[in-house]
Each structure stands twice: as C-alpha cells, then as structure tokens.
C-alpha cells in the first residue's frame, strides 16, 4: 500500500483539496497526474467529495462527447494513469457512434463484484462508478470537474451492475438550473439510455439491459448509490475486499 498517496487522500478533504494544483501530463499515449510535486492517482488521490457541504463529487473525464477513442483509468498500472483501452494489440474505439455524452468516473469509488447491488441483485463490474456528464461542451480528456449528481441508470452489462450516474458540471452556467433528474430534458436521458443499451451491438454483441425497467432514479438515491461505492472503495483500500484486473492486483 502506498502510504504517501493514501495520506494525501485522507488529508485532501473537499475544503483542503485545490483542484487548480492538479496537473495532467502526457506520457506517450497515457495521461499521468501530479499534485504539487507528487505523482498522484486520479482514482485514489482526488477526493470523492468536491465541496465542503458534500453535495458535489469529482468526475474524471475519460471519453469526451463526440469522440470515439476509449481511454480509461487503468486499475493495475502504477499511478492509475489514463490508458488507451485495447483488444489484443489493437486500440479500442466506439464502433456504434461517437460518444453522445461526456463519459468518465468518480474518484474514490469501486463497484465490488462480490457485493450484490440492492437495485439489480447482481455484483458490480469491478470499476469505479461510471458517469454520464450531460453538458453540451465536450470535456477535456483527463480533466477533473466538480459535478452535481441528478440521477442514475442501473445498467446491467454481462451480468454485472454498471451504474451510470447522470451529472452536470457544477461550474457550467448553461446547466445551472438543472437540479433534479426531472430538470434534464427527457430526450437527453432517452438518448443516453438507448446509446448505452445498444452500443455493443456494433461489435456483434447483444443489447445491454437496465434494472428497474430503465427508470432513472432521482438525485438523492443516485448520490446514495455513489456514496455506497465510495464505501466499497474504502473497504478495498483498507484490505477488507480484493480487487484484481487482468490477473494483477489493482494498484493502490
């Protein structure tokens, strides 16, 4: 366990963590993060909460809207750099279409495969909880934003729970009036719901499914789900659970 990083994570509460000090560096086709003079993990060292009142969370942009290249937080690479996803030796891109939302993850979360979700009845997908950021402007790849959780969709992918939080950039005035899931234009939710149900069909796979008939839960319940995955992440960091990826232990 990397004691310095976890000390940073513990010390950097929402009112102490200064997002302006977080820097992103390109190492070839990978993105690496630093805070001050220390290399840090976007998964473990950026606090879950993004404000002192615990109403906002931190979102890491992995796949900007209108792009196809699949960069993801790599769970077993040192520092959890953002890495181009591959299938064998080949980089992976969305075949179905370019992304219709800004996609990424919430820091300090984990969906545990060994814990059945109360909404779907099946375990998690072994990843940080996913985010569908609904602002029109594409996020910068690798950028970390403060976001407001408005709702969530309970996607079930390959028999695993793969929550999709519906969020907006808290610092974008264009969506400042969106405070609940009912404030999101219905066609925007429908577009995202349908895209993530169908996108793997372009790879010759079946459609994904949704728990609760595809109904979006409200912001309070969605934030409770997110906090639950933050608790599961903490259990793993504390050695109470096990995380492996591609035959290697997840890096922490």
Can you summarize this structure?
The chain has 252 residues and is of the alpha+beta class. It has 3 helices and 16 strands.
Structure description:
This protein has helices spanning 3-11, 186-198, 219-237; strands spanning 22-27, 30-35, 38-40, 56-63, 71-73, 82-84, 86-87, 90-91, 102-106, 130-133, 144-157, 160-169, 209-210, 217-218, 244-245, 248-249. It has 252 residues and is of the alpha+beta class. It has a single domain, classed as Alpha-Beta Complex (Inorganic Pyrophosphatase). A 5-stranded mixed beta barrel has the order 4-9-10-12-11. Strands 1-2-3 form a 3-stranded antiparallel sheet, with no helix packed on it. Strand 2 and strand 3 form a beta hairpin. It is globular and about 45 Å long. The N and C termini lie close together (6 Å). 41% of the residues are buried.
CATH fold descriptor? Inorganic Pyrophosphatase
Q: What global shape is seen?
A: globular
User: What class do helices, strands and sheet pairing give?
Assistant: alpha+beta
Arithmetic mean of pLDDT: 94
- The helical percent reads 10-25%
Q: Order of strands side by side in the largest beta sheet?
A: 4-9-10-12-11
- Order of H and E elements: HEEEEEEEEEEEEHEEHEE
Instruction: Give the amount of beta strand, in percent.
Output: 25-35%
Profile the largest sheet.
5 strands, mixed, barrel
Poorly predicted ranges (pLDDT <50, ≥5 residues)? none
């Amino acid at each position: 366990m990397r004691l310095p990083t976890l000390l940073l994570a513990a010390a950097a509460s929402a009112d102490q963590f200064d997002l302006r000090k977080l820097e992103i560096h390109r190492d070839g086709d990978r993105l690496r993060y630093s805070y001050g003079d220390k290399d840090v993990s976007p998964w473990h060292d950026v606090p879950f909460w993004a404000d002192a009142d615990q109403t906002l969370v931190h979102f890491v942009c992995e796949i900007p809207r209108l792009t196809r290249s699949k960069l993801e937080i790599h769970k077993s690479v040192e520092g959890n750099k953002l890495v181009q996803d591959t299938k064998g030796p080949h980089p992976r891109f969305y075949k179905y279409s370019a992304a219709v939302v800004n996609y990424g993850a919430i820091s300090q979360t984990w969906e545990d495969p060994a814990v059945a979700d109360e909404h779907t009845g099946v375990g998690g997908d072994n990843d940080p909880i996913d985010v569908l950021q609904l602002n029109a402007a594409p996020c910068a790849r690798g950028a970390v934003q403060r976001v407001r959780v408005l709702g969530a969709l309970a996607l079930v992918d390959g028999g695993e729970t793969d929550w999709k939080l519906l969020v907006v950039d808290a610092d974008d005035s264009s969506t400042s009036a969106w405070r609940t899931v009912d404030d999101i234009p219905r066609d925007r939710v429908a577009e995202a719901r349908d895209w993530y149900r169908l996108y793997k069909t372009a790879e010759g796979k079946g459609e994904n499914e949704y728990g609760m008939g595809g109904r979006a839960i409200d912001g309070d319940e969605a934030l409770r789900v997110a906090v639950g995955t933050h608790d599961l992440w903490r259990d793993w960091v504390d050695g109470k659970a096990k995380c492996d990826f591609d035959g290697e232990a997840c890096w922490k």
